[in-house]
């Protein structure tokens, strides 16, 4: 199965998937909306083609998404995987692309959006985790595909939690879902 990845920063989940190739999945392309995103160099080092489609200052969301779709049209892929792609996608993109997945660092529907780990700690919950979900036009509101629980330990700070959720949760759950789709 061929994937298109989209990230705005490091794309660590995408790179983890690229390195593991779950179910034989491979990236046809990784796209970013930030020319300075570290994922560009990391993908290039792995031999994965990259595309950069930054949004113009006065460009509408729909126009930008059309340019993203145009950039992706040169590649053959069956699944889109997001990782920290800091844009809320609209029907323009979602109707023009195959199934699009994202990973969020909490057990949705709890703690959507930004500052997730701070929200978790402020709430005093004992278990957090991550959620891989289908993307819709809402923030972290699409149908849940899988979740991976991660304990919250006494004394954790937001960085401790962020690292544990990424390495023990997201790096397990996202490749698992990609493998399901690849089968």
Keyword list:
single chain; 37% helix; alpha/beta; seven-stranded mixed sheet; 7 strands; 183 residues
3D structure, described in words:
This protein has 183 residues and is an alpha/beta fold. Helices cover 37% and strands 23% of the residues. It contains 6 helices and 7 strands. It has a 7-stranded mixed β-sheet, sandwiched between helices. β4 (79-83), α4 and β5 (100-104) form a beta-alpha-beta unit. α1 (12-20) packs across α6 (158-182). It starts with a strand and ends with a helix. The relative contact order is 0.17. The mean pLDDT is 97.
Question: Which secondary structure elements does this structure contain, and how are they paired or packed?
Answer:
Blueprint: E1 2-7, H1 12-20, E2 26-32, H2 38-45, E3 50-52, H3 61-72, E4 79-83, H4 91-96, E5 100-104, H5 116-123, E6 127-134, E7 144-151, H6 158-182
Parallel strand pairs: 1-2, 1-4, 2-3, 4-5
Antiparallel strand pairs: 5-6, 6-7
């Amino acid at each position: 199965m061929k994937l298109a990845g989209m990230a705005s920063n490091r794309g660590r989940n995408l790179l983890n998937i690229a390195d593991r190739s779950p179910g034989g999945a491979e990236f046809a392309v990784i796209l970013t909306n930030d020319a300075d995103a570290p994922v560009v160099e990391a993908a290039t080092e792995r031999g994965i083609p990259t595309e950069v489609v930054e949004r113009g200052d006065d460009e509408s969301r729909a126009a930008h998404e059309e340019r993203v779709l145009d950039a992706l049209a040169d590649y053959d892929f069956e699944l889109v995987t997001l990782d920290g792609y800091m844009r809320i996608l609209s029907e323009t993109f979602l109707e023009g692309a195959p199934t699009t997945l994202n990973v969020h660092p909490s057990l949705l529907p709890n703690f959507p959006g930004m500052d997730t780990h701070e929200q978790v700690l402020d709430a005093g919950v004992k278990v957090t985790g991550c959620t891989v979900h289908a993307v819709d036009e809402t923030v972290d509101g699409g149908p849940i595909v899988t979740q991976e629980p991660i304990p919250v330990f006494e004394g954790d700070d937001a960085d401790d939690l962020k690292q544990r959720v990424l390495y023990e949760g997201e790096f397990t759950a996202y490749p698992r879902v990609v493998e399901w789709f690849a089968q």
